[in-house]
Amino acid sequence: QESVLNMALACQKNSYLRQLTATVVSCTSVSPTEHDVVLSDTVLFPEGGGQPDDRGTIAGRAVQSVRRPGHAGDVVHRVAGTPLTVGESVDITVDWPRRWDHMQQHSAQHLISAVASRDHAMPTVAWSLGKDRSYIDFGVGTFAALSELEQTVNDAIMNNHAVVPHLVDETSPLFQKAHGRGLPDALSAPFRVVEIAGVDANLCCGTHVSGLAHLQAVKLLFSETIKGTTRIHFVAGQRVLRVLGDLFDRERAVIRTLTVPAEDIPAEVARVKKAERGAAKTCKDMLKEIAELTAQQAKASGSKTVCLHRSDGDLDFASAVAATLGDGILALITCGDDQGIFLVSGPEDAVARVGPQVATILNGKGGGRKGRYQGKATNMAARAEAQAVVQAAL
After folding, report:
1. Is the predicted pLDDT of residue 80 greater than 80, yes or no?
2. Apex CA 187: angle with CA 77 and CA 75, to 5°?
3. How many CA atoms lie within 13 A of 203 on its CB side?
4. How many CB atoms neighbour CB 376 within 10 A?
5. Which of 118, 162, 138 minimizes the C-alpha distance to 234?
6. Do residues 36 and 28 lie in contact, with contact meaning Cβ atoms separated by under 8 Å?
7. Residue 275's pLDDT is what?
């Protein structure tokens, strides 16, 4: 039995079909547990038109991928498990939640693109159906009417325009007026046109809802300009409810943390961030003062070498110590616990000799010039050995 014609798969004739019985046309093993199966027909949509492929089962075996090479000819199902027998009758079941989500997002894309083209002269140049949200790229550089576009789209959903797939040839008036970005060379009639009654007709191979009311709602999340195009991110159907639920849960978590009403969250976050920046500056200034005092005390000892460690220090602290000590004292300043930073400063020849040794001992990498050698270390536990090398250098 031969596989079905272009654009006439069972899933394309009826996107709501969840199960189908078909005949195995061929089964090619690609590994002991994976097999490429061609059926007389399928309820599983192959990847195409921007829509990901379906998942499901064939004779109880998990389907890992569904593809149609060249957008025409046989649909190949990658099936896990034991091989199937040519000629046997098998039951095919689609992963319905995944399919339903794809139907809602894909039909929403058609509607958004149609309204954007009709009302705002914005041609669609690309789109992507993502795992959490999708986007459409439009061939205009800027767009400021996002709310207006969203309202018109949701008005159309409320009016529940029918969404109907048609199989036509080149002579059909519907084919002549259908939008599209070109057809694959291997594709021949019949062609599939998905029509949103009174709104749009589009060449498309994907699965769609039967009426716009099944989209439930569309939310245009935000737009951005990318390489001269406007990219609009959106969610539709069940994803709108999921996004709203996630946002509400996060809002409640923030309210519990900040102990302010929802309407005061932006102002409170701004206040906290401002206070955080102020506190960070104060800490930085205090750490610099501590570094300078520490270096002055070490310098007053008269020693030719100084080794200092501060677990809560950073490179700014180490640099402040080195600057206060000057170039006449060979110093090793380390900061951090198990991992951290190190800085060797002092006479240029001694630093050039000792710096790489310290880096090796502390299992780190570093570099420098003119009396400075600094880097990151991953073995601060060995700093006593590194300090001994510095103290023995002069």
Report:
1. yes
2. 10
3. 21
4. 16
5. 138
6. yes
7. 96
Identify which of 99, 109, 81 has the alpha carbon closest to the alpha carbon of residue 44: 99
Distance CA 40, CA 283 (A): 72
CA 136/CA 130 separation, integer angstroms: 11
Query: What is the spatial distance between Cα 249 and Cα 255, in angstroms, rounded to a whole number?
Result: 10
For residues 310 and 335, the answer to whether their CB atoms sit within 8 Å is yes
Q: Quick one: three-class SS letters along 166-185?
A: EEECCCCHHHHHCECCCCCC
Helices and strands, number each (H, E), in the chain: 9, 18
Ranges assigned E (strand) in 227-345: 229-236, 305-310, 330-336, 340-345
Q: Using an 8 Å Cβ cutoff, are 203 and 168 in contact?
A: no
**Contact at 8 Å (CB) between 342 and 334?**
yes
Q: With contact defined as beta carbons under 8 Å apart, do 333 and 342 qualify?
A: yes
Write out pLDDT tens, residues 3-56: 445 568 999 999 999 999 999 999 999 999 999 999 999 999 999 889 999 999
Omega prior to 266 cis, within 30 of 0: no
| Three-class DSSP category at 322 | helix
Q: How far is CA 201 from CA 110, 163, 193, 215, 261, in A?
A: 9, 9, 6, 18, 47
- Token couple for 14: 């009826």
Q: Which residues pair with 236 in a beta bridge?
A: 218
- In three-state secondary structure terms, 220 is strand
3-state SS, residue 301? coil
Decide: 92 and 79 in contact? Cβ < 8 Å.
Answer: no
- Token pair for residue 151? 């309202």
Task: Walk across the sheet containing 134-138 and list its strands.
Answer: 124-128, 134-138, 229-236, 218-226
| Confidence band for 187, pLDDT divided at 50, 70 and 90 | low
210 in Cβ contact with 90 (< 8 Å): no
Structural contact between residues 365 and 376, judged by C-beta atoms closer than 8 angstroms: yes
